[in-house]
Design brief:
Layout lengths: L2 H12 L5 H8 L3 H13 L12 H5 L2 E9 L4 H9 L4 E6 L6 E7 L2 H12 L4 E8 L10
Antiparallel strand pairs: 1-3, 1-4, 2-3
Helix pairs in contact: 2-3
Length: about 140
């Protein structure tokens, strides 16, 4: 990846709806150059897809929590599979330290958060769960 590729990725991370024509004008290159770069970035797996980022109005209606999960030895794979089936679970990552998995959940109400936590606690292999409710977002650099 060169400097132009980085610029294209940064621009699309800020606004994934930016057109190829607009990117070409912005970086003073031919439209076909940007199109070829995008195709190469997609083919190589650097760009996995295009999405939207919810605005403050939509986010304000969702309550998010980080869930720290300890699992029994050799049950991580089955726990992750069951977590993936819960629509409230947005993300799961493995972790080092005192917990094995970190999940992010999003719900419309605190009651739904409570129900989701109960479901997570009920998964075979889950030993302990700690939840941290997000109060406000100070900044978000996620792509």
């Amino acid at each position: 990846m060169d400097e132009l590729d980085q610029k294209i990725l940064t621009a699309l991370a800020a606004d994934s709806s930016t057109s190829v024509s607009r990117l070409a004008r912005r970086f003073k290159v031919a439209r076909s150059t940007v199109q070829a770069r995008l195709e190469r970035l997609e083919t190589s797996g650097i760009i996995a897809g295009y999405t939207i980022k919810l605005g403050d109005v939509a986010l304000a209606r969702r309550i998010k929590a980080t869930v720290l999960i300890q699992v029994e030895p050799r049950t991580s794979a089955s726990v992750v599979t069951k977590l993936k089936a819960l629509p409230e679970v947005e993300m799961v990552a493995t972790s080092t330290g005192r917990v094995d998995l970190i999940a992010q959940i999003a719900c419309d109400t605190t009651e739904e958060i409570d129900q989701t936590l109960e479901q997570i606690n009920g998964i075979t292999g889950v030993q302990d769960v700690e939840s941290l409710i997000h109060l406000s977002i100070k900044f978000d650099r996620a792509i």
